[in-house]
């Protein structure tokens, strides 16, 4: 009986472990969400979503980029978001073989444009709307050692060109740093947009224990934009995986949040002109905190640039077991084979056309 009770407790705990995980606050809107199974009945169609570039869909995750150099991929929702306030819960995983060098990170988008690959974390520059960046390779020396990511938000009216050298620090409306890479635990990001405030939180322990990354007021985003997630690798690489995404109704403000919002609103109105009315249905994105003077932060990091060979060597020295890039291996094999074939043909040609003819002439008395 006791054994049975223990088994029941263990079973319940196991089930709770499987089911546990940060649940969205409100009703999930299926047409703006991603959940398993991703593909519709054995087809390559993911309902309501497009996947572009190097993005591949497997049974358990959508890999935006593999742990290989110079890749970029994205997923884009096919339907515009009609609601004014929302919460997005993104379950993701950033992982790879690199011990000290890895990158570049991923971005969550709420933009007017969709489905265009580009050089800002795999997506187009000069976007119109909101970009939230999880930057795992800081071009400035912003990160503490040991897998930190630099998380920031930029509200763009289509005119700002993302400044990679500065990690967008003088363009951002808010930011934070935290460890998100190669974690044992599940990693979740939550973005809450309500009453023109933007709150970004992270959960890296699987319980309902969310840490606030930033909370900022006076962010005005038009309705009807598209949701997307993109990622890129360059000289450095990582796997960037999306496991699920849920768009739902946002939770109500806590009293503390309401007070914080009011303080930020007062402060913004002292320094920034032309802030739209709270209930305004804006047609252009606007963020008050972007208007404040922002300095370029910190010393610039030396640019990292590797050839494929150097990249492999560094990883090998770091103790990584590289599976090898089969395309590269294949290429070399074909090159050697091609040289052998061309050499062989040239040899035969020389023998038959030159040597034999010369001999024939020589002996043609
Ligand atoms: Ca960066």
TrEMBL record:
It is found in: Membrane. Keywords: Membrane, Signal, Transmembrane, Transmembrane helix. GO terms for molecular function: D-mannose binding. The keyword Protease does not apply. PROSITE patterns: L_LECTIN_LIKE (PS51328). Residues 1-20 form the signal peptide. Pfam families: Lectin_leg-like. It is a single-pass type I membrane protein. Residues 26-250 form the L-type lectin-like domain. The chain crosses the membrane at residues 331-350. It comes from the Eukaryota. Its main location: membrane. One of its GO terms (cellular component) is endoplasmic reticulum membrane. GO terms for biological process: endoplasmic reticulum to Golgi vesicle-mediated transport. InterPro entries: ConA-like_dom_sf, Intracellular_Lectin-GPT, Lectin_leg. This is L-type lectin-like domain-containing protein. It comes from Salpingoeca rosetta (strain ATCC 50818 / BSB-021).
């Amino acid at each position: 009986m006791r054994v049975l009770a223990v088994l029941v407790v263990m079973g319940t705990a196991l089930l709770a472990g499987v089911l546990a995980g940060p649940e969205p606050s409100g009703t999930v809107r299926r047409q703006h969400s991603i959940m398993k199974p991703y593909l519709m009945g054995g087809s390559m169609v993911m309902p309501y979503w497009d996947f572009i570039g190097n993005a591949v869909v497997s049974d358990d995750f959508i890999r935006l980029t593999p742990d290989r150099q110079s890749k970029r991929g994205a997923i884009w929702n096919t339907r515009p978001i009609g609601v004014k306030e929302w919460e997005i819960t993104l379950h993701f995983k950033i992982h790879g073989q690199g011990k000290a060098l890895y990158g570049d990170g991923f971005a969550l988008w709420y933009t007017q444009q969709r489905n265009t690959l580009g050089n800002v974390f795999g997506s187009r520059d000069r976007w119109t709307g909101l970009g939230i960046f999880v930057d795992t390779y800081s071009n400035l020396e912003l990160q503490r050692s040991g897998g930190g990511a630099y998380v920031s938000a930029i509200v763009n009216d289509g005119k700002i060109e993302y400044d990679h050298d500065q990690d967008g620090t003088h363009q951002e409306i808010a930011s934070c740093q935290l460890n998100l890479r190669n974690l044992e635990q599940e990693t979740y990001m939550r973005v809450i947009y309500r009453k023109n405030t933007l709150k970004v939180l992270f959960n890296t322990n699987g319980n309902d224990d969310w840490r606030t990354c930033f909370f900022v007021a006076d962010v005005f985003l038009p309705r009807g934009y598209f949701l997307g997630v993109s990622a890129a690798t360059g000289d450095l690489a990582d796997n960037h995986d999306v496991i699920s995404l849920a768009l739902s109704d946002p939770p109500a403000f806590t009293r503390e949040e309401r007070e914080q919002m009011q303080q930020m609103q007062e402060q913004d109105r002292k320094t920034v002109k032309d802030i739209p009315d709270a209930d305004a249905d804006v047609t252009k994105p606007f963020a008050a905190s972007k208007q404040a003077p922002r300095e370029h932060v910190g010393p610039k990091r030396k640019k990292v640039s590797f050839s494929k060979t150097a990249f492999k060597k560094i990883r090998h020295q770091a103790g990584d077991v590289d599976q090898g890039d089969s395309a590269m291996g294949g290429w070399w094999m074909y090159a050697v084979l091609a040289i052998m074939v061309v050499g062989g043909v040239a040899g035969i040609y020389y023998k038959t056309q030159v040597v034999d003819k010369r001999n024939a002439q020589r002996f043609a008395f």
